[in-house]
């Protein structure tokens, strides 16, 4: 038993024994009424009743007065094994990211569909073997203009002060096929 548990037990055992004597009106008692007992120990009747019932249901043992564990039991909220297996099969077959997996399974599992974060946790529990890790997915496009990578950036404050400018944005576009990059800046609504 830890020190804090010993403190709880040492405080409540004498109070509960006195409570029993007061309720049963046994003659060697310090208080005539339960209300007086509560006022003397600075507790309310509801707490006294709660601790007394815990103590009685625990066969008057010291451990019955200690706080019980709260919250979900370990593993009680975990996704079912059958659902996890289906998610891993789909992930290994299609290589989908977590959001695509949620959209894929939403029609089948409805409200039991795991969240995107849970999808990542499930994937980490079943890691890929070494040969599957070596396979790299490439998405290079064959024709120019089929796929572009875009980035938008705001110039830092010290550059704006140097050139006496307002907010300046720079947009850069890189074509996936040709790897040609283009950048433009936007100043006060005009290019």
How confident is the prediction overall: mean pLDDT? 85
Query: How would you classify the helix and strand content by structural class?
Result: mainly alpha
**Biggest sheet descriptor:** 3 strands, antiparallel
Q: Give the neighbour order of strands across the main sheet.
A: 1-2-3
Radius of gyration over all CA atoms, rounded: 34 Å
Distance between the termini: 73 Å
Helix content: 40-55%
From the spread of the alpha carbons, the general shape counts as elongated
- Count of beta strands: 3
User: Count of helical segments?
Assistant: 8
Share of β-strand residues: 5-15%
Order of helices and strands: HHHHHHHEHEE
Q: pLDDT under 50 segments (min length 5)?
A: none
List keywords for this structure.
mainly alpha, three-stranded antiparallel β-sheet
What does this structure look like?
The chain is built from 8 helices and 3 strands, in the order αααααααβαββ. With 191 residues, it is mainly α. A 3-stranded antiparallel sheet has the order 1-2-3, with no helix packed on it. A hairpin with a 5-residue loop joins strand 2 (168-175) and strand 3 (181-187). The protein is elongated and about 100 Å long. The N and C termini lie far apart (73 Å).
